[in-house]
Amino acid sequence: MRAKTDNLLLTMLIGLLLVACNTVTVIDKHEVLHSLDLSDKDSIVLLGRRHSHQHETERDYISCVGSNLSAGNEGINVIPEYQFIDTMYPYFEASTAPMDVNRLGELVQQPIILKKFTDYNIRYLIWIEGNTQTIDNSGAISCAGGPAGCFGFAMWNDEAHYEAKIWDMNQLALSGKISTETQGTSYLPAVILPIPLLANVKADACDGMATQLKQFLK
Amino acid sequence: MLKQFRYILILCSGLLTACGQSFIVETTLDIPQPVPSQLPLKMAVLYEPELREYTYTENNEDRINWSIKIGPSQVQLFDLILPTMFTSIDQIEQLSSTKGQTYDAVIIPEIIDIQFALPFETKSTIHETWIKYAIHIQQTNGTEITTMHVIGYGKSPNKTSIKFLLNEKEGLLYATNQAFRDLAAKIIVTFQSNADIQQWLASKSIYY
Fold this sequence. Notes:
The structure holds two protein chains of two kinds. By secondary structure, chain A is α/β, with parallel strands linked by helices.
């Protein structure tokens, strides 16, 4: 009887492992409005939109996309987000940053701001808006403590939506848009010990965005 | 005898208060140096004692003996941003000090309100701070040019609440510093776009 129960649990676990960590990138699309031209000397800066406190783009997502873009022999020069924001203070704070490219045009009329862009060799300024959220969850786990450990099962669905808008600093115009949508289900079975089987939704959305941006810019 | 009894009572009461969860901190300021965009103006700034010595106090069941000293950080904030906004800025002790001087205008910052929200109050994992200012800008003869109302908001990174065994005080100070950062940015940007200021500058043939 004990062996039968163990087999059943094992089968359930293998079954879960097969379906777990299932992340699906639903849509990756891009729209080119102007041709792009990035030389080896040029840099880009990736900035997260955070003007709405409820839907802020995560800092770790921006740095993940930046790291992916700058990795490898053909990596792109990416200015770290917070280095740029601090250097440009107070003009790129969450509450003061230009919301459209026309406002950026007004900003670079200040010679000192233009000089900072020129010093960094910034060719494209890329705004990323969106975030990863848990859209639903179910199940429960109870941890009584002591030798009994934990028992139960929980699962949740995460969804990531991100959109990047590419601003051309030479033409002061919107050059293109890229979006990525990713979904995934994570499982947490617990038989004495909880075993997290996590879907890397945000990481997959980061890879999807970085791959598209690389194709777009190179 | 009665006098000694009174002293003992005061001492006991002091000890009881000290044993409570007093929250006594002073805010600090750590914000970037703003990009200078100086207007050719000779300005004066008046820090009233209410601003210079401002301490937020509260004492109730949830916030026992709260005392958050904010004044020095506020003065530090204006001392940091104003020289990046004007070619000349002098600190004055009182409005009458402007007599016989050739200041274009006087800036008088006033703190209107400050609010804090703790994770257990908002059922979140962040600390939040709001600071509201009225920045009075007037000519040396007392005529008001404008009053800018600015609100600074700051929050700590996720999970600074005590339930995550991290420092409660640190979360609040971080959120307050972020509010100062937001406030300073808004003061600079609002000054550049305020219609009354634009009109006043135009009367002096000064344009951004």
